[in-house]
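Subject: Interface between my chains keeps coming out wrong

I've been trying for a while to get a sensible model of this assembly. When I model each chain on its own everything looks fine, but I need the whole thing in one frame so I can look at the contacts. Pasting all components below, labels as-is. Any help appreciated, I'm running out of ideas.
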Amino acid sequence: MNQRENFFAMIEGKKPEFIPNSMEVYKTCVMATSIIDSPFQGGLDAYGVNWIATKEGSIPEPNKFMFNDITDWKDHVKFPNVDTLGIEEAAKMELADVKRDEMVINVFSACGLFERMAAFMGFENTLCSLVEDPDASREFFEAFADFRIDCHNRIIDAYQPDVITYFDDLATANGLFMSPKVYREVIKPAHQRIAEAVTSRGVIFSQHTCGKCEEIVGDYVEMGAKIWHSAQISNDLEGIMDRYKGKLIIEGGWDSSGPVSYIGASIEDLIEEAKRCVRVYGPKGNYIFMPVLMNENGNSLLVGDPRLEPMLKAFNEINKL
Amino acid sequence: MEKVLIELQQAIENGETQIAMNKTKEALNHGIRTDKIIQTAINPAFKDLGQKMFDGEIYVTDVLMASRAAHAAMYVMEPMLSRSTGTSKGIVAIGTVAGDLHDIGKNLVIMMLQGSGYTVIDLGIDVPTETFIAAVRMHKPDVLALSSLLTTTLPELDNMIDALVEQGLRAQVKVIIGGAPVTAEYASRIKADAYANDLFEATEAVADLVKNRIGKYAV
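Reply #2:
Try treating it as a single job with all components included. I did that and got this:
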């Protein structure tokens, strides 16, 4: 099996030949979301929010908010015109040399509902709004979901992707930002519409959430997510894999906040971590390996790293299922 | 304990800002001293919240709302606090290290510390070593709190402590570090004084450091 065939064997609940590796299985497309949602090099996004590039990705300019009160959102938020975003041009550039029969086309869709509200008004205002102004928050989320669905439909038309990975970080390392009840009442209805609009087009919905979010992973499965991306070890990953076998694939497992992700982690430590991932998660059958190597310049996935090759070589020697 | 202080504690835990303000005014009208209000209503509220957070019963939103209510109570008491000397529990200078622009965790810790009666000097995000050093010289904080969310900026914590040693300032200030990639082992390796995994641990650790106690978050 090639990478694509192996991936779809796993998706379809058949037995894959090997544990897929996120660095090799995907053609990851980021240009559309960089234009619309989160400029990776920094600068203004399509809504007028300024982003600052850091070594580990760009973030909204701190302490510079478009508004402070969610009830004012309509006075400030102008949804961009989907026709003029340049999604089709981005697709042409990114897919120029892609062999569709060998790889899985995965289009990233960054800055989801919660993160978008925080990009406009900061995390503290956002978190308080969820509790103090749930109606206004819901109204914003529904309007944003409408726009995001329009964008996804254009992305699907232009890229013909296999997977859309939708990013929304709803948790800290220790737990959710908000209670599951608040998530379900205020965010989930719009979130669910976004997921269903993707799956209704025959595209796999992959949900990215960092941190300890295990309390709502069942909600992700319920709304049709097939992959949970960037699953971190602060969650009970083995338990989740058992509970949702056949329904959800876990992509992650690397100790992305621990010593193996510190700058200067040794090759031996990285190989040991790869072996741990293979040993602990691989046999479950619903696992995609997702190493996170950081160095002085940032994430090795984007900036390269001489430690990658020996680590991946060691992984490929033991990844057979 | 006076009923009004129990009600104030409850209002803070429930994140009820207006009630917290009213109960604080009521307590002051009854002649209850500000230090007693802090010690018997605000501090226990945070202690309860910390336990509930540890037990997974509450979330960041709940803590944020509670912090706002505690802030409101402190705001009501502010005129009295500024007249009485020694009411502040201590001075904490805090910032996110150079190269790191994240401020959620830092800001929550600030709210907790202020709500608990500490004077906090917020040095912001992406703070160069020189700025931390200048703040230590100028404000003479009891504690310097350093935050790093990114693994790529973790070495800045080490650099910061080296700079304090080089400048001859290490003995005059306790250093606590925190952030997602920070571990007790890392804190010990770079010779910080304490490490905290969350905002409640940070508050407890600062209390120990200010009082020169070897607390459970010391490294």
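Reply #3:
Confirming on my end. Strands of chain B lie at 91-96, 119-122, 143-147, 174-178, 194-196.
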